[in-house]
TrEMBL record:
This is ABC transporter ATP-binding protein. Residues 44-271 form the ABC transporter domain. PANTHER family: TEICHOIC ACIDS EXPORT ATP-BINDING PROTEIN TAGH. It comes from Herminiimonas contaminans. The keyword ATP-binding applies.
Length: 438
């Protein structure tokens, strides 16, 4: 990639903390920390940090690599989620990208003006009023006074702090503070927006508003990096994800693949999920999942289907102990907006047949000309009846596929000259009977 082809390039990034030596960044408290803890706890934490007690149980002068050989490229306009367990290094990565914390090794290149929402005390000056802080932030981002003025009312409106505009922000409640911080970071035309979990704080309405605003920022072609533990938020907002574990990038790719891998530990690409070599596959003592996939009528795994093609969904599962009745595989198909399109299980299923331990593969076919074009996701499950009705496993959004309406393959659409999308979740071929003169 040439310089202008990426917004952020990180190469071999390492961040080392030497426990026992105060890092200069330790004086900062994250906005999330400050919001999720009471004032007393916060004061205690600040005291611990200042007095060096925060990591007291660790050996003095022990080196800990909290980010290790992290490399990735982010293209302009990408909205990327950073996910991973507690302590994986997500917040540290954002701090290093914003230079709040120094890196110990590697290279970072950033093309574009960055606004971030990470830290109390960065960007906002506590003694200045809300109004003054909006102008200060705008000028830090390189905007003229006139440009900031144009955005001013929208920011104040979004944050809902009209009455407190001339109050120093140190007097703001944490809710007001975060509302103003988010409004400023997301409205002052940053080219790159870095956001750490703050949206998890605050009421549902504010979260929804923030998500909406982040979506607008993304649609505007800005680059967004979003650290979060909320997988639904990441799924609804981010097109791709980076999964961190113990300071290393363990996977990077489409959000659905990475979120699923994080949740299940499986090797995933969207058209196949495979637990064949895993020690703890989903399931119970009777039935466990081996793999599941989407294939075409030539038995080739694929993500893309023409509207004219049937789609085969397959689940391979292992029966570990004899079952007195046959287990019941089922698929749950949802569209890209999350609407259930259908749930299907075998209608010719005979529950009375005993099933011996073995591997079984259940496939069903979605006929051609049923689904409209679009992206669909498939949940997979197997139920059995050993102790009443039990679900051995159910993995929502395990697989996905696209149905494409290729106009060049559709003579009717070519003739009609209509190239736009035909609305609807399904597009069945119905039998028509047209009679005249009735
Ligand atoms: N100033 C510091 N000194 C020493 N260790 C630190 C410091 N800041 C963070 N760490 C350690 O670095 C590791 C990564 O922390 P970080 O906050 O980046 O993780 P995270 O993925 O954001 O976690 P969480 O989801 O819990 O916020 C943790 O083990 C943490 O204890």
């Amino acid at each position: 990639m040439t310089t202008s082809e990426f917004a952020i390039r990180v190469q071999g990034l390492g961040k080392k903390y030497t426990i026992g030596h105060q890092d200069k960044s330790e004086g900062y408290l994250s906005l999330r920390d400050s919001l999720t803890q009471g004032t007393r706890q916060l004061a205690q934490q600040a005291f611990n940090i200042i007095s060096g007690r925060q990591h007291a149980p660790r050996t003095r002068n022990e080196d800990i690599w909290v980010l290790d050989d992290v490399s990735f490229d982010i293209t302009p306009g990408e909205v990327v989620g950073i996910i991973g367990k507690n302590g994986a290094g997500k917040s540290t990565l954002l701090k290093v990208l914003t230079r709040i914390t120094d890196l110990s090794r590697g290279r970072i290149e950033i093309n574009g003006r960055v606004a971030s929402l990470l830290e109390v005390g960065t960007g906002f000056h506590p003694e200045l009023t809300g109004r003054e802080n909006i102008y200060l932030n705008g000028s830090i981002l390189g905007m003229s006074r006139a440009e900031i003025k144009k955005k001013f009312d929208t920011i104040v409106d979004f944050a809902g702090v009209e009455k407190f505009l001339d109050t120093p922000v140190k007097r703001y409640s944490s809710g007001m503070y975060v509302r103003l911080a988010f409004a400023v970071a997301s409205h002052l035309d940053p080219e790159i927006l870095l956001i750490d979990e703050v949206l998890a704080v605050g009421d549902m309405e504010f979260q929804k508003k923030c998500l909406g605003r982040m979506d607008e920022v993304a649609k505007d072609g800005r680059t967004v990096l979003f650290v979060s533990h909320s997988l639904p938020m990441v799924s609804s907002l981010c097109s791709s994800c980076i999964l961190l574990d113990s300071g290393r990038v363990v996977a990077q790719g489409s959000t659905s693949d990475i979120v699923l891998r994080y949740q299940t530990g499986a090797d995933v690409n969207s058209s196949k999920i495979d637990f064949g070599n895993k020690t703890n596959p989903p399931g119970d003592e009777y039935v466990t999942l081996d793999s599941a996939w989407v294939e075409n009528s030539a038995n080739a795994q694929t993500l893309e289907f023409s509207i004219f093609e049937p789609i085969r969904l397959c689940i391979r599962f292992r029966v570990n102990k004899t079952l007195s009745k046959s287990p019941l595989p089922n698929v749950h198909v949802t569209d890209s907006a999350g609407n259930y399109v259908f749930v299907a299980s075998p209608h010719n299923w005979n529950e009375q047949t005993a099933i011996a331990p073995n591997e079984y593969t259940a496939c069903c076919v979605i006929p051609a000309h049923l689904l409209n074009d679009g992206m669909f996701s498939v949940g997979i499950a197997v139920n059995h009846f050993q102790n009443g009705l039990s679900t051995a496993f159910f993995i929502q959004h395990a697989l996905s596929f696209y149905v494409l309406d290729r106009i060049e393959q559709n003579p009717l659409r070519q003739e009609s000259g209509w190239a736009g999308r035909i609305p609807g979740v399904i597009r069945p071929l119905l039998d028509w009977n047209i009679v005249g003169g009735r």
